[in-house]
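Thread: Newbie trying to understand structure tokens

Hi all, I'm a second-year student working on a class project, and my supervisor (Dr. K.) asked me to get a predicted structure for one chain before our next meeting. I've only ever worked with sequences, so writing a 3D structure as a token string is new to me. If someone could post the tokens and maybe explain what I'm looking at, I'd be very grateful. Here's the chain:
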Amino acid sequence: MGPRAAILGGGIDDAALPRAGRRHHSGPPPFMERNHSVTYVIAEPCVDLKDKACIEECPVDCIYEGNRSLYIHPDECVDCGACEPVCPVEAIFYEDDVPEEWKDYYKANVEFFDELGSPGGAGKLGLIERDHPLIAALPPRDHEE
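---
Reply by user tm_fold:
Sure, no problem. This is what the structure looks like when written as tokens:
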């Protein structure tokens, strides 16, 4: 009997429990590791586009809007993955899957909230009139084709 079966009662095998699309994590569950551990990262394709389909899909309102990009709050994200498939430009990645050329966006998503803290939901704030320096330094992007 696995550890979850022991908690839930005998007769339930760990393999029978749904995984809800989450990735396997060793150690404590992601929500307990929140010492600035981002689970999903918004990268360069979002800059100057901000489609916001991910905001509508997020069940915990943890995607915040900066001037030029969207950011996932590292302490509020519950690792559900709902945002990733709805992004039309494929800008959202699980932290371990961020392409090498965009690895710095992990740091940008974390540091964007250093001054802001954890307001408990993006809807309370609306547009935040700033961006992380990495994003602010990028040349303007035209996404129209």
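A couple of things are worth pointing out once you decode it. Residues 104-111 form the longest helix (8 residues). The beta strands are 40-42, 63-65, 70-72, 92-94. Feel free to ask follow-ups in this thread.
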